[in-house]
Design a protein that fits this description.
Length: 225
């Protein structure tokens, strides 16, 4: 297996999977639909291109949480909003929009085709369209592309190991980092964020099973010794 690593860092990020009406939620870590959306933008893949989307969505994803974000909420008002069923616009639409402040994630995407991951890596370096962290207003604080992010012959778990790929933060590393892995066989957590289509008016997602564990950092080993 081969793994491509991405850095998702910014003052604000939002990874909602259950947004309904006046509440726009966020997970505590990046959703797969959000990450695949970043890849589509980088590669210039149209929303209607379900074939290219399926190839990207087939990659196995893992997330190492290098810095847990602080959950925040903004109160929004919007005027002259179109109704889903048509007809006159609404005078005012109220919503609470949640986001993560100051979060930092190392995302890994695992696949068998190294050449395919290479093409994604190159696209992230020179994206076709702007990249953002869950919402168009939330731009990355650091490049998503990393020069040493392509790991040929390295599986997902090994690539995300802080003993192999160092902690991304500037402050001292914690003793352990949360790891969320796509685990269709034994995962006990279910998120409906496996993208099937991004087509306008026909956005569809499937359930995805996840497992959560913790990784020991070199800082913990130093403390023990």
């Amino acid at each position: 297996m081969n793994t491509l690593l991405l850095r998702l860092s910014g003052p604000m990020q939002s990874w909602g999977v259950q947004s309904r009406f006046g509440v726009r939620d966020t997970n505590l870590e990046p959703s797969k639909s959000g990450v695949i959306g970043i890849l589509c933008a980088a590669m210039g893949i149209e929303r209607s291109d379900d074939t290219s989307l399926a190839r990207l969505a087939a990659l196995r994803m893992g997330v190492r949480v290098d810095r847990e974000g602080i959950l925040k909420v903004d109160y929004h008002t919007a005027k002259n909003v179109f109704k889903a069923g048509g007809g006159p616009t609404k005078d005012t639409e109220l919503s609470n929009r949640y986001y993560l402040a100051d979060a930092l994630f190392l995302v890994g995407l695992e696949g068998e085709e190294l050449a395919f991951l290479e093409s994604i890596h190159e696209a992230l370096c020179r994206p076709v369209w702007p990249l953002f962290l869950g919402r168009k207003a939330f731009i990355p604080g650091e490049p998503i592309w990393m020069e040493d992010g392509l790991k040929g012959g390295v599986d997902l778990v090994t690539a995300l190991d802080p003993q192999k790929f160092p902690y991304l933060g500037r402050q001292p590393a914690p003793t352990r980092l949360r790891l969320i892995l796509e685990d269709q066989k034994d995962g006990t957590i279910v998120h409906s964020d496996q993208p099937l289509s991004f087509a306008m008016g026909n956005r569809r997602f499937a359930p995805r099973r996840l497992s959560v564990t913790f990784l020991t950092t070199p800082a913990a080993i130093t403390e023990v010794s």
